[in-house]
Amino acid sequence: MEIQEYFRILWKRGWIIVLVAVITALSAYGFSSMQVPVYKGVSKLHFRPYRVDWGLTNTAKEWLPLYRERIQSDQMLKDVIGRLRLDLSVDALKGKIATAADQATFSIQIEARDHDPEIAKRIAETLAQVFKEDQDEFNQLQDKRDQLEVSILNDARYYLFSPRKKINTLAGGIFGAMLGVVIVFFLEWLESDVVRTTEDVERHVGVAVLGSIPAIASEEVIPVGARRKRRWAFLKSLK
């Protein structure tokens, strides 16, 4: 199929693609609007070795995954529940928590999700504070040269986690456009053997059409009684 043929099909049935894209985009927007918003509270911990040492620095990198596990431990989550007086179980709170370590910057990001943006922010903020206090206590038992200091970077913030209306609407429109293209070419395939116009003949045969037989209108159906009256009137006119 030549490229001109694709353009002809899209020009002929392009409205189907647009219609399906608009329907799916509006559906995605409507579905997103019905969802209850979920917010993400974010707090970030930064680690710094007491002295510049290659071995201590690499040890700090290797300890980041262990610190992530420590942050999400039952004991720390119990402390957070107690401080904030949350009506949540440890497992329920653990389902709201996510952590990510960045070895390049010696940092761990703590995320807490909740329908209430302030609660999400306070959970992330309190969890970071609880871990910092625990690490400070641990450092007191170590030689100062081997200590790994931890600090909280910036104040905790919250962001909208879901639904992302703009992204969902755009994704719905793109999906609808793709579905519309499939529908258009499927319809074209169904009608590929149907010849309606001279252009269809030329496209299938490959020869220019010089003329065509006009369609003959079907004979008008006249009742028997009316035909007899017309015949009698014609005979009278001959006399």
Compile the SSE list and pairings:
Elements: H1 3-34, E1 38-49, H2 54-71, H3 74-84, H4 90-94, E2 97-102, E3 107-114, H5 117-140, E4 148-162, H6 165-190, H7 198-205, H8 224-238
Antiparallel strand pairs: 1-3, 1-4, 2-3
Description of the structure:
- By secondary structure, this protein is α+β, with helices and mostly antiparallel strands.
- It folds into two domains: 57 residues, no CATH class; 125 residues, FepE-like (Bacterial polysaccharide co-polymerase-like), CATH 3.30.1890.10.
- Helices cover 58% and strands 17% of the residues.
- The chain is built from eight helices and four strands, in the order H-E-H-H-H-E-E-H-E-H-H-H.
- Helix 1 packs antiparallel against helix 6 and helix 3 crosses helix 5.
- It starts with a helix and ends with a helix.
- The mean pLDDT is 81.
Task: Report the biggest beta sheet as strand number plus sense, adding barrel if it closes.
Answer: 4 strands, antiparallel
Record the strand order, biggest sheet: 2-3-1-4
Categorize the overall geometry: elongated
CATH class division of the largest domain: Alpha Beta
Brief description of this entry?
It is elongated and about 130 Å long. The protein is an alpha+beta fold. It has eight helices and four strands, in the order αβαααββαβααα.
